[in-house]
Write a structure and sequence with these properties.
With about 280 residues, the chain is of the alpha+beta class. Helices cover about 30% and strands about 15% of the residues. It has seven helices and twelve strands. The longest helix is centred in the last third of the chain and has 32 residues. This is Protein kinase domain-containing protein.
Length: about 280
């Protein structure tokens, strides 16, 4: 690991890590001072901190690992002007000001509607590699307007520390050794088609979201869709066919949503007809 990379810790006089303290190195970073930011709360100790939740606007500050491709991938995705691009708007601090930081406005957690964002990355032959509820956010309607690219209610993907720029696209890329991530594959599998891994993690994210939002009675069709996305992993060493591609998943979801809306309209028409044919009381 390159010297100076995270995690950054605050150490007490006994040499113990003070997990709730913001590293003095971050607080004294020239860009943090110039922007008037006051990081107060750890979100990923040694790596991600936020300003006070009691003071708006709220910002997240991530200490980037220069041994990864995160900064380069974030810059590439940020330059893409496309409604399907779900990369969170933010700012990379200039290299001449010290260790690179990624500063982003706060978002509220939500994991729906992320398939389009994954498909867009896959079209660019980029895989996220760490899709999980904590890395899928939706813009708060009251978001700081300094970030003009933020659309209220739009889903955004964050944390590209494990992301990969691949030579081959979906349907051609063979399995690779998985990097560390929030989710773990079943049956001790260590190699995965990276595009398929993103879809697999999207499925697990949806399942967790359903359990959180609908503790007792989640929508059956949503559960079936998430199960279909997850597939039955067989540990493919070549191109994976255990689950759909992100594009196929988006196409099927579009069809499912159309059918659901159409059925709702049919039910409304049937109700109106029934009401009009019923004898007056």
């Amino acid at each position: 690991m390159t010297s100076g990379n995270p995690p950054w810790y605050e150490i007490d006089e006994n040499g113990q890590i003070m997990v709730l303290e913001v590293p003095s190195r971050l607080k004294s970073h020239p860009e943090v001072i110039r922007r008037g930011l006051e990081p107060t709360d750890p979100w990923k100790v040694g790596v991600v901190y936020s300003t006070s939740m009691l003071k708006e606007p709220l910002y997240y500050i991530k200490i980037l690992d220069t041994d990864t491709e995160e900064a380069a991938i974030f810059q590439q995705l940020s330059r893409q002007v496309d409604t399907r691009n779900h990369t969170i708007p933010g700012e990379l601090t200039p290299p001449e000001t010290g260790h690179p930081l990624l500063i982003t406005p706060a978002m509220s957690d939500f994991s729906a509607l992320l398939i389009e964002g994954i498909e867009y990355m896959h079209d660019l032959r980029i895989t996220h590699m760490d899709i999980c509820p904590g890395n899928v956010l939706v813009a708060d309607p009251q978001i700081d307007r300094r970030y003009s690219g933020v659309e209220p209610g739009k889903v955004y993907l964050i944390d590209f520390g494990s992301s990969l720029q691949l030579p081959l696209g979906p349907g051609s890329q063979h399995a690779i050794t998985l990097p560390p991530s929030q989710f773990r594959p079943e049956n001790g599998i260590t190699c995965f088609d990276p595009y398929s891994w993103d879809v697999y993690c999207a499925a697990l994210t949806m399942q967790q979201t359903l359990k959180t939002c609908y503790r007792n009675d989640p929508p059956r069709i949503a559960c079936l869709y998430a199960d279909w996305l997850k597939g039955k992993e067989r540990g493919c060493k070549a191109v994976c066919h255990c689950r759909p591609t992100a594009r196929r998943a988006r196409q099927v979801l579009t069809g499912v949503l159309w059918l659901v809306r159409a059925w709702e309209q049919v039910k409304n028409v049937l109700y109106i007809l029934k009401s009009s044919l019923s004898p007056p009381s």
